[in-house]
Design a protein that fits this description.
Layout: E1 10-13, E2 18-20, H1 34-40, E3 42-49, E4 52-58, H2 62-74, E5 78-89, H3 95-103, E6 131-138, E7 140-141, H4 152-155, E8 156-157, E9 160-162, E10 167-169, H5 174-177, H6 180-183, E11 191-194, E12 200-210, E13 221-234, H7 241-248, E14 255-257, E15 263-265, E16 287-302, H8 308-332
Antiparallel strand pairs: 1-2, 1-16, 3-4, 4-16, 5-12, 6-10, 6-12, 7-8, 9-11, 13-16, 14-15
Helix pairs in contact: 2-8
Length: 333
């Protein structure tokens, strides 16, 4: 049996302000109960592919939606390069800049298989909490390079240092558990530096498990955002040149035009709510723009170590753990 259509609380977007629905008193008039929360909350997956995860979170408070966003950004762990030992760097890149670049290289290692380093951990790390890499690249001139050649690839050897040049150094029994393809860089074509003959890099890199709240390099997501679901309503018929003008006021695919050259709302979901339509007096009264106050469209793009759906589930686990700790603190008093 299909669920009855719910009453959607709307926020109306006028030309210069955002107006609340007169019949909607907002969060101030809502009393939180677990029964109502379970009844209202819905999660609907819209898209889940290599580009990322898009899902709808419906019927929750803004604080809950924002908690999930912040947890995915800063509380779900990942592996990243923490220490860079520079034995030789004769390139034009300063040591500090080079070390910073190395720290931002995304690693494929699954953080759930590693432990956090503690104050009691040895400085060199262990096979349970540390990954080691080395980068050794030396640029030289090709012997067969002619004086009239202008392509650097034909003139120099190893003049571009990529993330694919990193070599994994297994610690302990790591080689029996992992492979270089499961712990190395996610992308092998990330440009680190450009060298010329006589330039050389000799580095040892140490990767550990960390959180995005300590440093952005540990964040497992490239982006994790949400926005409110747009709602567009045509108040009257718009046809002819005005229909095409109306179509140009919205994001592509939002407004369609039928065979009679009349405008209609095709898909309001992906509108950016720019309110450009209010610039034209002849269209001012033709459209009502709104957003659904408790319908959040989440977009999660993973760096690559964890799939987006796994990142969201890990964020749910972190929130559950925090809530349990808070309840235990209250009960202890």
């Amino acid at each position: 049996m299909p669920k009855p259509k719910r009453d959607e609380p709307l926020l109306y977007m006028e030309e210069y302000r955002v107006k609340q629905d007169p019949q909607d008193y907002g969060l101030a008039d809502e009393v939180f109960t677990m029964e109502v929360f379970k009844k209202k909350m819905q999660i609907s997956i819209v898209k889940n592919d290599e580009d990322g995860l898009e899902f709808d979170l419906i019927g929750v408070y803004p604080a809950i939606a924002n908690a999930f966003r912040r947890l995915m950004l800063s509380e779900v762990p990942s592996m990243a390069i923490e220490k860079v030992y520079i034995y030789n760097n004769t390139s034009i890149i300063q040591d500090e800049v080079l070390a910073h670049r190395m720290g931002l290289l995304p690693l494929r290692a699954d953080p759930r298989l590693f432990a956090y380093r503690t104050e009691e951990s040895p400085e060199a790390g262990t096979e349970q909490d540390t990954l080691e890499f080395e980068l050794k690249v030396k640029c030289s001139r090709r012997r067969d390079a002619g004086k009239d050649q202008s392509n650097f690839d034909d003139i120099y050897k190893n003049h571009k240092v990529y993330s694919g040049h990193l070599k994994w150094l297994p610690k302990g029994k790591q080689a029996q558990i992992y492979s270089e393809s499961t712990v190395g860089c996610i992308h092998e074509d990330i440009l680190i530096a450009q060298l010329r003959p006589g330039h050389e890099l000799d580095l040892r890199l140490v990767a550990v498990k960390g959180l995005g709240r300590d440093h952005a390099k540990f964040s497992p997501v490239a982006t994790a955002t949400y926005r409110l679901l747009p709602q567009i309503k045509l108040n009257r018929e718009v046809s002819g040149k005005d229909a095409y003008l109306l179509q140009s006021c919205f994001s592509p695919g939002v407004i369609g035009i039928n065979e009679n050259e009349c405008a209609y709302v095709k898909d309001a979901r992906y509108d950016t709510c720019s309110r450009n339509v209010y610039r034209y007096p002849q269209l001012n009264d033709a459209v009502t723009l709104a957003r659904v106050r408790d319908h959040y469209i989440f977009t999660v793009e993973s760096v690559g170590a964890l799939k987006p759906e796994v990142i969201f589930l890990e964020a749910v686990k972190v929130l559950k753990k925090k809530c349990r700790a808070f309840i235990n603190e209250i009960d202890a008093k």
